[in-house]
Design goal:
- The chain is an alpha/beta fold.
- The strands form two sheets. Strands 6-7-8-3-9-10-12-11 form an eight-stranded mixed β-sheet, sandwiched between helices. A four-stranded antiparallel β-sheet has the order 2-1-4-5.
- The chain is globular.
- The structure holds adenosine-5'-diphosphate, iron/sulfur cluster and magnesium ion (MG).
- Iron/sulfur cluster binds next to loops.
- Iron/sulfur cluster (SF4) binds next to loops.
């Protein structure tokens, strides 16, 4: 990463998550409900996010990404663990503290339509945060600020009185972004913000988020279900599998030399056009993700891992340094040769075959995805 593109971070942590757990009880019975099990959606995760940094969280559907996001913005109560935000434990925050927290921590949702009230105009949706927090009480001032926000996210200010259904998917996500940045939060949690959008629109929304993050000095947690989007957005990436973080590393290290076999499998499934415009075959992960209500013993990936040995189903691997700057939870991490096999040339970074990372501009991937 060149100097001009270095994250605007002073090296201190804005967020520190320690041993965070969220289990959803499974109950049986109509009158007397009895707990018969639990969905271990998030099961003891620890990570931190520095000020001004963008952390990606990636994993297949059902791995616990949205649950993690909802815990971080305290839309969910954790089962156990601590979440330090700016030094304060918000895991146990009460209602009044949460209102203050929601000025500083905001979320963008995957589905821009269902997260916007269809009966409200765009102007009043974006003004909501000011109303909830008793700010900008003068309606003229509020309207002016909302129009500034609309302009900032690329919406036509003349559409102030329109309703969400009158906008395209990309524009609706811009409305969600405007609402999320209205109070100038310190942390923005974006939960698959472009997954529901047409591929041709995705790059525009990603560039918008990247621009805002730089201008506002935002700290961003960016969630995606595959690694292709995250690479151009994130300084570091955490890979989740069945409620656990299985690997976390600076983007260049994760994409240059993945150590966890699951990361390798996700990378090999990324569709990319190579520098010469050629394409590579995708090697998709086989089998479904096991149920988080009954995850495999010890290493949860052992039922799908090509490197699994007896130890893997007996002893849980810890998230530990594995050479380079990667932490990975694996007894038998990928060798360099195994990792290289899983890397498309255009992604391996080290050979500089693309300049996308250097410019940190998200390129429209429609050409590489349209044929898949
Ligand atoms: N409110 C809930 N009640 C019960 N189970 C839930 C709830 N929310 C999520 N889950 C389960 O937790 C697991 C993780 O879900 P989620 O965090 O949404 O994963 P992801 O965002 O990675 O797809 C899934 O098995 C999901 O069905
Ligand atoms: S611990 Fe074993 S099963 Fe788990 S990822 Fe590593 S090699 Fe595969
Ligand atoms: Mg999700």
């Amino acid at each position: 990463m060149d100097g001009a593109e270095a994250p605007i971070t002073n090296g201190t942590n804005l967020v520190e998550v320690r041993n965070l757990v969220k289990h959803f009880p499974i109950t049986r019975g109509i009158v007397f409900q009895k707990q018969i099990g639990a969905v271990k959606a998030v099961d003891d995760i620890t990570f931190e996010v520095k000020r001004g940094e963008t952390l990606g969280i990636v994993g297949e559907t059902g791995c616990g990404k949205s649950t993690t996001a909802r815990l971080l913005v305290r839309l969910l109560d954790p089962t156990a663990g601590t979440i330090l935000f700016d030094g304060q434990d918000i895991a146990a925050a009460k209602k009044d503290d949460l209102k203050a927290l929601h000025r500083e921590v905001q979320m963008i949702f995957q589905d821009p339509y269902s997260s916007l009230n269809p009966r409200k105009t765009v102007g009043s949706i974006i003004a909501d945060p000011f109303v909830i927090h008793g700010l900008l009480k003068d309606s003229g001032e509020r309207r002016k600020r909302v129009q500034e926000l609309m302009d900032r996210v690329g919406l036509n200010t003349e559409h102030y009185n329109r309703f969400p259904h009158e906008f395209s998917g990309g524009q609706r996500q811009r409305i969600g972004v405007a609402r999320a940045i209205a109070l100038e939060p310190k942390l923005l949690v974006a939960d698959e913000p472009v997954s529901a959008l047409d591929v041709s629109i995705q790059a525009q929304v990603l560039n918008l988020l990247r621009g805002l993050q730089r201008e506002m000095g935002l700290t961003l947690i960016f969630i995606a279900h595959d690694l292709s989007v995250v690479r151009h957005m994130c300084d570091r990436v955490a890979v989740m599998y069945l409620g656990k973080i299985v690997e976390i590393a600076p983007s260049d290290d994760l994409y240059g030399f993945p150590r966890h076999p699951y990361t390798g499998a996700l990378l090999s499934a990324v569709p990319v056009a190579s520098a010469t415009g050629g394409r590579r075959e995708r090697q998709l992960l086989t089998g479904d993700v096991p149920s988080p209500a009954n995850p495999p013993q010890a290493c949860r990936f052992h039922t799908r891992c090509f490197k699994a040995q007896e130890l893997c189903s007996q002893e849980e691997p810890l998230l530990e340094p594995k050479g380079t700057r990667n932490l990975a939870a694996c007894h038998f991490p990928l060798s360099e040769a195994e990792a290289r096999l899983r890397l498309p040339a255009a992604l391996s970074g080290a050979n500089g075959s693309t300049n996308e990372r250097g410019s940190r501009t998200i390129v429209d991937q429609s050409s590489s995805s349209s044929s898949t």
